[in-house]
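Example for reference:
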Amino acid sequence: MAMVHQIILAVGMLAALFVLFLVISRSVGNIDNFLYKLEYLVRKDCDIRLEALEAKFKLRAADKRFEATYGPRFDMDEAKKEIEGDG
């Protein structure tokens, strides 16, 4: 009779270990998926910020060229010379 109790206890423990293994593996899988999503979102945010920074620098460079060409110290004679020299 004692042997039957030990077998039932052993089978119960194996079932409990199996359930715990399933729960832990599923939790680890969810954590893994969450970390992949987090990495994707961080990379996407970094790319978007980098593109915004590049656009900002391009706009600044265009503004500086515009100011150098048509700013308050714009000289029409120099502009004509540049046009004639280029053409």
Observations:
- The mean pLDDT is 85.
